[in-house]
Structure formats: C-alpha cells, structure tokens
Amino acid sequence: MVDDNNSPGSPDKNRSPNPDGNASPENDAAIDVLARKVQESLVLGKTHKFWETQPVGQFKDIGNTSLAEGPIEQPTPLSEVKQEPYNLPNLYEWITCDIDSEEMCMEVYKLLTNNYVEDDENMFRFNYSKEFLRWALRPPGYFKSWHIGVRVKSSKKLVAFITGVPARIRVRDDIVTMAEINFLCVHKKLRSKRLAPVMIKEVTRRVHLENIWQAAYTAGVVLPTPISTCQYWHRSLNPKKLIDVGFSRLGARMTMSRTIKLYKLPDSTVTPGFRQMELHDVPAVTRLLRNYLSQFAVAVDLDENDVEHWLLPTENVVDSYLVESPETHEITDFCSFYTLPSTVLGNQNYSTLKAAYSYYNVSTKTPLLQLMNDALIVAKRKDYDVFNALDVMQNETFLKELKFGPGDGKLHYYLYNYRLRNPLKPAELGLVLL
C-alpha cells in the first residue's frame, strides 16, 4: 500500500452520509463517482503535484475513449535508466534492507509498528509481525534491492522504508510483470520532509533497472486515478472485546449479551472433507485458483511456486483450507486468510487486536456462503477477534448474509504506467494486495 493507506479502523463509527442520498434515480452513477473523485482530488491538491508528473491515469482523462488501454509510456533502454540513486536531504542515506537479517528485520518491524498506518482517530495501528514481513517481501524471484530504507547518517537510525516485490498481473488478456509497491512508511517526526516522493521515485528507478515498467499499489486516499475502489467489511468474532476497545459499538437497542449471541458461531465446521491445505495440494490448488481467477478483468497470475509461497499455511501469517471430496478425493473448494494484528493504542485492558483478512477463496461444489462460514469458524477457534474482507471477486455475495458490517475505510487500487479506460467494479478485480 502506498501513501496514506487504508486504516485498520473501525467498522461502524463516523460513517459519512451517502453523498448521493438526495440524487434522483436517473442520475448517472458514473458522473456522481467522477464528481466525488474530483472533489476529493481538489482537497488533496498538494499530494497530486507529484502524481501529476507520473505515468498514471489522470482525472482529466477519465472516460476519454481516444486513449488506448495499456502502457502509458514505453520502456526506455536500460542504459538510459538513471544508474545512481536519487538525492536525499543531506542528513540521510539510502540502505538496502536485508530482511533475512534478524537485526534488520527487527528495525523494520519497529519502524512500522510505531509509525505505519493508523485509523483516523489514532486508536489502532497495523502491527505486522517479522514472520509476516518475511513472507510478504520474499516471494519467488524477489529482489533484495527493492527493499529500501533511509537512515540518519549520524545515528544510523532507520527512519523510512518502502518495498517492491515482483508479481505477474493479468490485465484483461495481457499478463504483465509488475512490481507490487508496499510498506511506504516515514517516521512521524519527518513527515514534513517530503521524503515520500523521493522514495517512490527511487523504488521506481530500481524496478526499471530490472526491466520492469509497471506497478500495482493500493492506498486509502484518492490519488490519480484508481482502477477500482473497494470497501472493507468486518465480521465480529469477539464482539465484547471489539466494543471494549472501541473498534465497534453496541447497536441501537442491543445489549452485550444479545450482541454476543448474534455473532456466535458453531464450534465445528460443517463441510465434509474441509481440512487444512498441505504441500501435496499445491498443484490442485493452483489449477483451482487459475481457473477461478481467469474470469476477472484484472487478476494475479499464479503458478505452483507462487501458490506454495503465498498460500501454504504459515503459523500466524497465512491460513488456507480446502475441501477434498470424501468420495473422489478431488479438491473442489478453497479458502484462505492472512493474519494482520493491530496494536490497540491507549487501552488499559488490551494491547492487540487479532484480525484475519480474507485472501483468495474458490467455490465450485461447496456454496461460497458455507465455505466462508467454515472459514469464520476456524478463525474464531484460533482466537481471532475480527474477520475482514474486501468486496472484491465474489465476496459481496456472502458479506451481509454472514453478518459482516461495512467499514468506514475505502481501499483504492492503482496501476502505475498502465491505463484502463474505465474504472472496474470491485467484483471485476481478482487481486488482493497485502
């Protein structure tokens, strides 16, 4: 996620009223969306000084049918790519962060834990574990040089961080090698130093040196120009704790005991053949996922190495379950979620909120509703407090039924140096970025 990322924040507080509440039915929804984006972009004018110089879809071009889909700028010869790093302010220096090093990983962990994304009310902050960071930053074919830090020269203190990892992303019929850009974080005391644009330019330079010219990223703010805007939904697993820490609040005319009862789940899963994914399942899961993801306009392109890395269960990082037919032993369905806790700020009773985030789910024989209910049951059994899901892929079909509530944060998806003529609906997106 880049820039001010989507917050870990709360599902039902401060929800802004629907700006289209008084609109007549015949109003064109696309114009409403465009008007909102332009309004938001005017508010964020400062941010856009940088983005308006970059090869990204610009607000003024939305709906311009004369512009072709695909790369905005063609690759330049590698010999013409800037060979030296961009200049930092005098007191700082670039470093490459070796995530394999325990000491370095700890420094990155501390920087993110104390300075990364918070909700609007500063009650929660993402708390990526070291195991999660290693998983997120070392996929097949990763480049160490894309894990970039900024240190204070004198004290050697790490004060900023940005990363890229390689990914193959299919856009309609074209498979494009891209960088997924993530973890842009600048120490709170240095937010006025305009380090972020330099860091984005530096990671872009290093990506170009590997002859890769496109990137994907997400942010919680509107930049030029989202390819899709998604909504986070939250499903309470431990409603008492969520209410106690201020993540959610007691509904009107609801008591705590009624709320606990409302969100209660069965003790055990109901689908025959539902079990944890194992190494020998990788080929079958890959086939299942590739077939499923082929229906979306933009989707990740996964091979067996990717599936083994991203989806084979790792304790407190990623969980994957599948349905193996008791009769034929065929793998028919799959669900997964990753673990991203948040630090609870300023609460005497709790320090951490354990959150599961829906990842990739495929239903062919088991109804998606039933499959996801089983995922909720295993998450509850593993002491997760909340289960989060974006309305991407087919997720919208189960959210309300399974008692998810809409969050107050939006997550905007972006492509760098790649134009889509029109924004996608979340259901056309087969991509989850960490």
Automatic annotation (TrEMBL):
Broadest EC class assigned to this enzyme: transferase
Keywords: Acyltransferase, Transferase
InterPro entries in UniProt: Acyl_CoA_acyltransferase, NMT, NMT_C, NMT_CS, NMT_N
Disordered, as annotated region: 1-30
Keyword Transferase: yes
Protein's UniProt keywords contain Acyltransferase: yes
Biased composition (Polar residues): 16-25
GO cellular component: cytoplasm
EC identifiers of the protein: 2.3.1.97
Catalysed reactions, semicolon-separated: N-terminal glycyl-[protein] + tetradecanoyl-CoA = N-tetradecanoylglycyl-[protein] + CoA + H(+)
SUPFAM superfamilies referenced in this protein's UniProt entry, alphabetically: Acyl-CoA N-acyltransferases (Nat) (SSF55729)
Physiological role: Adds a myristoyl group to the N-terminal glycine residue of certain cellular proteins.
Family per similarity comment: Belongs to the NMT family.
The protein's name in its UniProt record: Glycylpeptide N-tetradecanoyltransferase
